[in-house]
Amino acid sequence: MSGSSDTNVPAGITTNWVSLAALAIVGLLSLFSLYMGFQEWGTDQETSLIYIFIGAAGFAAIGYMVFRRQASVNTPRKELEIQKVDVVTTLECPKCNLKRVRDFKRGDYIFKDDEPCTRCDGIMKITRITRKKDEKEIAKQKKADEDTRDL
Amino acid sequence: MTIPFGQIFQDQNQLNTVIQTLFSLAFIIYLFYAQRLQSLQMLRQVEVTVRKIKTVKDEAKKITIQTINEIGKPTIDITPRIDRLMDQFFLPMEGMDPAGIVDKLDHFLKTAKSVSKEEVKVLAPSASESERDNLENLIEVSQALDQLYRILRHYYLQGKKTMNIYVILQTQMILPQVLEMVEAYSSGVQAFKDGMPVGDSVGPIVAGKLIAGNPVRDIADEFVAADVPYEGRTIIVMKAKGPGGSVGNPDEGLINVLNDKQGKVKIIITVDAAGKLEGERVGSVAEGIGAAIGGTGKEKFKMEEIAVKYKIPMHAVAIKEGMENVVAPLVDPLFDGTDKAVEYVKRIIMDYSQPGDTVIVMGIGNTIGVGQ
């Protein structure tokens, strides 16, 4: 259904530009208002407070918009993509117990008699194929452990 | 340069009136448009997600086509055929008269499997049997991603068309679960492309460890068994035939072996990966009673039926994993879990059987990247 997958979701770029423009305008007005407020502080404190209040409210609104946007965009915390991870193959010689770890290559499978042992005349067997540990995973596991420590 | 309010508004009352009017206006707008604003905001979230899923499913399809071209060396342009496969559907059985529905389901599943096999054969004429199994799995992942995308897009467009907050709200509410599924499937693309063991392969790995090089024989389509002597008992260890991506036919394998043995088996132990609850560790092992097997339920039904027929107790060993692990390349805690599961199986055998008994151990799951 090459056609149907292109029955598209309307473009969202315009919305992004509108949001950005709105943010910029509100930001500028708020900045101007704050400037006016601080300028006026010495002469007319009541007017100055109104200006400062408007400026602060503008920045609060910007903060809220950014926060909401982050929250919505981060619903999937990161960009979705086809993950590519490093996978390693562990080989062991059943005769001399020599162990070797190398990158996975297509055609590897667990329990496969793979290549001659470099130390004896045995054939090394693939005993393990797993994802290479990365720091992100370790940190994630650590956090999960911390979260459940007292539960 | 400052512009005092006094210059713009001649007196304080005028300023108050303007502020009051602005507030009243904002209140009225909020009163009438709050729901619409909320709907637009949620719709935007759904749209962002739909776009992300579209990117992933397009990428998965591209990788699928590339891999088939690389491994299968087709002589034709396979893109239209893959597009057609993405659109393929499986109609659910009619259950008005449920008697015999499992056999009906079995028949339809076998038809679907054979259609899929034939398609892959045409798409990848140069691929080996194992590679074809892997390609079948890869196509299934692409199909699943495509399906998720189309369903979500349907609800997004429906919500946008009707501006019905309940349609939009329900769609927005399930986004985290949908994304979890998309992430899980997308992590399977690499594994199925290259034939790596995945989280679901833990059952066959446990079986492979128990087989430990003993000769295997075919007992059903894509399902093998080996007789393994252990502490005076005979363990018949079964698993899907690897290393291609396949779950085999465990129900038929069990039925054939039990009929062959005329039911003279002491216990049946099934080992499978199981979904963990939040807070449980990946790779933790638990044991229980029953048939540890997922899927459509057809296999589970038939296995339970034959076990009941011969009155054989069914034990289960589960290795816990998260949804993100199921089709992703195997992680260390899961592989370590298979060693623990082997110990559990051995202990169950020692506890519930006597020397001279025959015990069946079934490693359930996808045997991709796992030999015998």
Structural topology:
The complex is a heterodimer of chains A (151) and B (372).
Chain A: H1 13-40, H2 45-73, E1 87-92, E2 99-103, E3 113-116, E4 123-131, H3 135-148
Antiparallel strand pairs in A: 1-2, 1-4, 3-4
Chain B: H1 5-8, H2 12-72, H3 79-86, H4 101-123, H5 129-162, H6 165-173, H7 175-194, H8 202-211, E1 216-220, E2 223-230, E3 233-240, H9 250-260, E4 267-275, E5 285-289, H10 298-309, E6 314-321, H11 332-352, E7 358-363
Parallel strand pairs in B: 3-7, 4-6, 4-7
Antiparallel strand pairs in B: 1-2, 2-3, 5-6
Helix pairs in contact in B: 2-5, 2-6, 2-7, 4-5, 5-6, 5-7, 8-11, 9-10
The ordered string of helix (H) and strand (E) elements of chain B is HHHHHHHHEEEHEEHEHE
As a whole number of angstroms, the C-alpha radius of gyration of chain B is 28 Å
- The number of helical runs of chain A is 3
Strand content of chain A: 15-25%
Coarse morphology of chain B:
elongated
Q: Structural class per helix/strand content of chain B?
A: alpha/beta
CATH topology of the largest domain in chain B: Rossmann fold
Helix/strand order of chain A: HHEEEEH
CATH-defined superfamily of the largest domain in chain B: Peptidyl-tRNA hydrolase
Mean pLDDT over the full residue set of chain B: 91
- CA(first)-CA(last) distance of chain A: 49 Å
Decide which structural class fits the backbone of chain A: alpha+beta
Strand order of the largest sheet of chain B: 1-2-3-7-4-6-5
User: What is the gyration radius of chain A calculated from CA atoms?
Assistant: 30 Å
* CATH class division of the largest domain in chain B: Alpha Beta
Task: Give a written overview of the molecule.
The complex is a heterodimer of chains A (151) and B (372). Chain A has 3 helices and 4 strands. With 151 residues, chain A is α+β, with helices and mostly antiparallel strands. Chain A has a 4-stranded antiparallel β-sheet, with no helix packed on it. In chain A, helix 1 (13-40) packs antiparallel against helix 2. Chain A is rod-shaped and about 95 Å long. The longest helix of chain B is centred in the first third of the chain and has 61 residues, at 12-72. Chain B contains 11 helices and 7 strands. In chain B, strands 1-2-3-7-4-6-5 form a 7-stranded mixed β-sheet. Chain B folds into 2 domains: 43-194, no CATH class; 199-363, 3-Layer(aba) Sandwich (Rossmann fold), CATH 3.40.50. Chain B has 372 residues and is of the alpha/beta class. Chains A and B meet through helix 1, helix 2, strand 4 and helix 3 of A and helix 2, helix 3, helix 5, helix 7 and helix 11 of B.
